[in-house]
Amino acid sequence: EEPDEPLKVALLTPGPINDGGWSASAYEGLLMIEEEYGAEIAYSENVAMSDHDEVFRLYADAGFDIVFGHGAEFGDAATRVAPDFLDVTFCINSSNITQEPNVFSIQNDNAEQGFLMGAVAGVVTETGIVGGIGGMDIPSISNAIRGYEAGAKYVNPDVDVRTILTGSFDDAGKAKEVANAMLDAGADIIMVDVSQASMGGIEACKDRDAMIIGAIMDQAYLAPDNMITSGVANMPLAFKKFVDKYLEEGDVFEAGSYRMGVDDDVIYLAPYYKFEDKLTDEQKATIQKVYDDIRSGDLVVREYGDFKQ
User: Fold this and answer.
1) Mean pLDDT, the chain, as a whole number?
2) For FRET with 17, which of 9, 153, 154, 206 sits at 20 to 30 Å CA-CA?
3) Residue 4: what pLDDT?
4) Mean of the pLDDT values across residues 45-57?
């Protein structure tokens, strides 16, 4: 049922909402909530860790019903602030953090996302060497990287998968340096999952006409001639599913962690666009079978690696 007063939903992001990836996907989710529910929305971008508590309190004091912290790094602050605002629902994205009665979490299944991206790389590579670049060593990124490694090996046991975590989401220079080193070593495909710093890796691949796999959002527009596809984590849909549950269950909505993947339509591959005619029917069929098997449950990604959460 529709609430008597407009729903009020706020969002904290670690990066800029125009980063073309992680923070942008959350902002799209916030806009979807505004459109779907007529909600009043607000957001704070580039929120430093030292400011997490203060910004959470700001929105809670202002009477917001739901406050999303977009990343596991917001979890500690949410668990500190939440006991003072029991009428506010705090939701931490990309984590399994919960605290009764009002701290929840949602996860896009980055293990499945990474596995799909790895399957593409393992099928398409011509040199037999592929690269993957992640940002900080947090579960969402490490799971995507481990999934990427496992997915590539699943379809191509002989592939050489080289991955690295740069430790940063904003150091585009570092991402470009790493991508160039991988290309120097013979990689012909680079997967980039470094939020706003992904632009560095994408730039390196464009400069050298190498193939790219994007992450989180459909990033084809950033490199239309080089981007095979993107491993999409549809955060707007995950946001909507969470708000639906919040509205449906009301006072009996119990704190919990909700993981959403291929079977929820939250994880999928973007279209091939300019690569539609470059990939063979056999290559596309192999990738599609991996997707279909994950969706049906015949392929359980977490059996193929040591994943967190």
Assistant:
1) 95
2) 206
3) 67
4) 97
Backbone dihedral angles phi then psi of residue 86, each to the nearest 5 degrees: -70, -15
The model scores a pTM over 0.70: yes
Q: What DSSP string describes the chain?
A: ---SS--EEEEE-SS-TTSSSHHHHHHHHHHHHHHHH--EEEEE-S--GGGHHHHHHHHHHTT-SEEEE-SGGGHHHHHHHGGG-TTSEEEEETS---BTTTEEEEEE-HHHHHHHHHHHHHHH-SSSEEEEEE-SSSHHHHHHHHHHHHHHHHH-TT-EEEEEE-S-SS-HHHHHHHHHHHHHTT--EEEEE-GGGHHHHHHHHHHTT-EEEEEES--GGG-TTTEEEEEEE-HHHHHHHHHHHHHHHGGG----EEEE-GGGTSEEEPP-GGGTTTS-HHHHHHHHHHHHHHHHTSS-GGGGS----
pLDDT digits (tens, 9 = 90+) for 224-248: 999 999 999 998 999 999 999 999 9
Report pLDDT for 257.
Answer: 93
Tell me which residue of 21, 18, 11 sits closest to 195, measured CA to CA.
21
